[in-house]
Amino acid sequence: MNAKAALRFAQCLPMIAICHTANATDVMRLEGFGPISRSMGGTAMAFDIGTAGMMSNPATLSLGEAGSRLSIGVDLLQPDISTRNLDTGETAESKNKSKNRGPYYAPQIAYTYRGDRWALGIGTFAQGGVGTEYGNDSFLSDDGNSQPTGLDSSSRLLVLNIPLAFSFDVTDELTVGASLDAMWMGMNLNIMFARNQVGALIGDGRVSGTLLPVLGALPALDGAHISFSRAEPIASGADAWGYGGRIGLLWRATTSTNVGLAYNFASEMGDLKGDATVTAVDSVVGKISLPGKIKIRDFQIPASLSLGVAHEVNDRWLIAVDVSRAFWKDVMKDINVTFNSDSGGDLNLKFPQNYHNQTIVALGTSYRIDNWTLRLGYRHATEAAPSNLLFASLPVTPTRHASAGISYDLGYGSIDLAYSHAFTETTTNRSLPNAPVPIRNSHAQDNLVLSYTHRF
Known about the structure:
Layout: H1 3-16, H2 34-39, E1 67-85, E2 91-94, E3 104-114, E4 118-135, E5 153-169, E6 174-194, H3 195-203, E7 207-208, H4 212-216, E8 221-228, E9 238-252, E10 257-264, E11 268-269, E12 272-282, E13 286-297, E14 304-312, E15 317-326, E16 334-341, E17 346-352, E18 358-369, E19 372-381, E20 400-409, E21 413-429, E22 439-455
Antiparallel strand pairs: 1-2, 1-3, 1-22, 3-4, 4-5, 5-6, 6-8, 6-9, 7-17, 8-12, 9-10, 9-11, 10-14, 12-13, 13-16, 14-15, 15-18, 16-17, 18-19, 19-20, 20-21, 21-22
């Protein structure tokens, strides 16, 4: 690939982008990038996972064969989410009611070139997100009197990375790598806050602005609904661009054992902005809608540190283990929202989250038989989101995943397939302000990844 072709390829990447992103499994991050890593529990620090290495440990790009690799693939994700009202027994099911929410698919494309002692790569990957679609007729759309409002309850968060990566063999044993990522984030949200939730937020000092006394003057405020959403494949109700990146190293400890280390920097995203409507629901005067502009301030993806070891038992059998720490506590204390009405006045809200830092252990193995390679993996993570602060519209609960995959080497390329299953996780929240009534959320997920890599 010459310089002009590479430039044209880079210019096309943002247009390819992601079409949908589903509920990610390490909170708002996917549990692995590309089918090789995904099928091996998300391990990726110390062995060649293909072009997707630029999203995990860019130093592993130097493990590829000399020459070029072009990968094209798709991620298919099907979440199974429901929320139960523990007082009444009603259940709200997250279903596929809109063309931009589930089953989710995330196309990915990447190119790498391996020279003598260096390698480079560029690509587009879905990094993660969350998504629900409860519709407008469940108890999550009810007001403070448990009366239906007909207002939608749904969410979608998309995170897209466009990394430019480089690796260099410092010695025959040590390789360093780095990437700089352009990042795009888009959010849709339709969420109802019943009267008791609004009261709890006000009582905790989490609501301010000139619109607060206006809402307080209504004769019988039963709730408030926030809506910013676009039913399109990529475009979202509020979005922003930013940047991120990572550094990594790879040490060839022995001829059969590699050790990898990578640090993923916290994102630097701009505030998400878009058009929105706040609807006050009053049992006397009805619904009062206020169109305006929404801003979600300082919503970031956290830094993470990962260490991994990969060992070749023989020329066919590989085993790998990664341990990661994701620093969610640094970026997810509150969700900070500002609404400015077109007719004047503003409303500032802080929704508590208080995430914990997360530790993730991943195990993977692969075995090659002629042109076929079989893979298995398991991944376990600690809980990041406190159960008493769970939003039904933002479930980020899966912590256990099993995976399997298969590859076929065509000689000039390979076809790679991976399947992973997030085991059902059940979380209960009986606390205001994020739950209007005691709720129990159940979340499982199936994920299929397919890609083709061409070597030339």
